[in-house]
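Worked example (supplementary).
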Amino acid sequence: MNKGVPLLEAKGIVKQYPGVLALDKVDFDVFSGEVHCLAGENGAGKSTLIEIIGGSYKKDEGTIRINGTEVEFASPKEAQESGIAVLHQELPVLPYLSVAENIFLARQPRNKAGFVNYSEMYRQARKWLDIIQADINPRSLLGSLPMSKQQLVSIAKALSLDAKIIIFDEPSAVLTSVELKRLFEIIGSVKKEGKGIVYISHRLEEIFEIGDRVTVLRNGRLVGTRPIEEINRDTLIKMLVGREISEEVPTERKEIEDKAVLAVKGLCRKGIFEDISFTVNRGEILGVYGLVGAGRTEVIRVIVGADPLDEGEIYIENRRVRIKSPKDAIKYGICLAPEDRKQHGLILGKSVQENIVLPSLHRFKRSLFLDYGRMRSYTRKFVSSLRIVTPTLSQKVRFLSGGNQQKVVLAKWLGMEMKVFIFDEPTRGIDIGAKEEIRSLIRKLAEEGRAIIVISSEIPEIMSLSNRIVIMHNGRITGCLLREEATKEKLIAYSMGANHI
Amino acid sequence: MRITKEKPVELLSKYGLYFVLLLLIVVSAILSPLFFSYSNIANLLTYNSFTGLLSLGMTFVILTGGIDLSVGSMVGFSSILYATMLHGAIFTFMPDNIFIYTGSPQLTPLFPQGINIVVVFLICSVFGFISGSISYKFRIHSFIVTLCFMIFIRGLAVSYTHGQPLFGMPEYINFIAYGTFLSIPMPAIIWLTASVFSIFLLRYTRFGRGIYAVGGDEEAARLSGIKSAIYRIMPFIFSAFFASLVGIMMSGRMACGDPKIAQGWELDAIAAVVIGGTSLFGGRGTIGGTVVGVLIIGLIINIMNLLEIDAYPQQMVKGVIIIAALALHNLLSGRRYS
Ligand SMILES: Nc1ncnc2c1ncn2[C@@H]1O[C@H](COP(=O)(O)OP(=O)(O)OP(=O)(O)O)[C@@H](O)[C@H]1O
Ligand SMILES: [Mg+2]
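After joint prediction of all chains, the assembly is encoded as:
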């Protein structure tokens, strides 16, 4: 199918970071009218490769050709001018500027006199947002939008650049199924226009759904490039991890004790959600499913005291508590691994070890001092079980790949001694090998008798983890199912607002 | 959904500043019938236009996440530089024993009249360019760089004439300093014109929008195709330019060049900018806020003058009020997305 000169051809790309050979002679090309997926475990070098193509990092060796002519990008701007649009993994957004301005940054529409024409800018932003069917006001501040909406804005921006090559670095990590479906339709239509698309994802089903070819990287090296017809799920997994992994085999667990640890009654926050009641028992994993905007994260934020509560009651072990701040929540034994981990969960300038041990420091006290040896072995345990790719334990977290940063945050929370654990999208952005590991760590916490709430937009994940599933739609609970009763169809129906099926 | 919910709070934090200004005006009017007199208003505007101009430049700098401590020294430097040029040189070391051309009308300007001013602007702007570039290139926070410049430039200014003022100013400077247009004092006109110009620049040009972007998140701006150098350096040039403008206006008002004036004015400017709602972390703030900030500080001092409070207690009150204003502002706006 791929004939002629590729739109983009990268050959022998080498990139060395201090202590990490991120890319080792990698070849990659994109033809007009194809979706070329890029896959690999966390830290394999995917983002590095596309950042080099997009002009934000400099390569050490290798050549990049666009339509057959060699190019050397000194800045993202030059790459943009050559027709490359990149949707970055770490959404680079300006929260205090409007949505429209984020879309048209540095290329705002201007009137004849050369001044920024705001009404035109809002109009054009509206147009691009409509194309992706995003219900977002172009005038609102970007920072006031939830993550998924911010991602939609970035997608609108990538499309508006009118590039020949559009690169998506894990766009699905913060989108839910409806939005993702829409994204795939859009990708389908720009593909027909003859554009080339690069798509990075850890979700294999996505790769098989939209990919034409797939390139797999492992430890900075090219494992291979294959047309999608020539591979299946198993061969792809083998290429990805180079070893066998067992996937999604939820072991039957012992009966759950009927002892409520956390119970909420009639929680309400005006205009956002109302009448939310549920209970989580000792040793139970409660899944919370819903589309983005259903209010799941908002409910959790109230429970951990990050937002004020308008009405309703919260009980911990049958005792009514008032949680006014995250500190109160921790006092009562509730902790949250938030959805937006980059902002809330990590100290980027500190090392992997410092981040992981931070919430459990008291455990490493030895009289007046801290036991560094035990801290190191504790950290090492997580680094190896979650397969965190880092040259040393003292590497600053800032320099880890996106997925590895996620793993560090999770390791941090997984080691805490709490009664209630809340995980908001725990495996987002994490490669398949480590995903299963994280799930089994969550199951282990439950077996130890903790109460667990997992918010997830991935149906298979929520089905494999939860004992019970609560489904939310538009700020209300529309359904509650035991795992045995839950099916994909029922979850979707409830999440779209159906009350009884 | 979240947006509607935050509206009242946002409104309050957005317009709270104007409300405070209004309140202060009402209080002043009640305290003294003289408040609304022409001379009081004219004085108020004139005295505040100097801090006002400095805080315009400062707003640009702070919007990009920097700070400029050198503006006070720059005012003194431009004042003495201008005076020396009027006397026929760019640089004169005065021998110790000769005391000044006191009141000498014998001006032998180095260049034809208006050009001297332009040269002062240029030289000061170059200093701004240098401090901005050093901070940008070597990644030293501008707090440190401009602190050094503050000391260096004041030293330079004072060395010119061994700290002595240099008297004698041409007629037309008088007009800038004391004249009126439609009975509005000239300094106020200059300040307000420059403010309007700055508002326009920040809101309606890509350059202005780029300042917000770079100040908000330099990396995000870079990935969107913005080269940050110009946005990080230009504000220092603006700031130095406005400082030299103030220096020349001040020379007119005092009828002399004085290297020792405007000590500590940078702090007044920073206070006004911050009261006006501009974030010290950059990326957020408006010129309108800064103008109101200047007026708020000015009014508070005016009220204290009307109440005949002494200068030193005035300073205490000023310090307390600045903190109170900021605390209130943060309480109202919350720190939702910061
Ligand atoms: N600025 C940096 N300094 C040092 N090392 C870095 C830097 N950026 C990335 N790395 C390292 O380079 C390797 C490749 O990172 P990259 O971000 O390309 O991975 P990735 O394939 O995108 O992973 P993920 O799926 O987690 O996003 C990682 O081991 C990472 O630690
Ligand atoms: Mg990545």
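Two points are worth noting when inspecting this output. DSSP finds 17 helices and 22 strands in chain A. Chain A touches chain B through 33 residues (CB under 8 Å).
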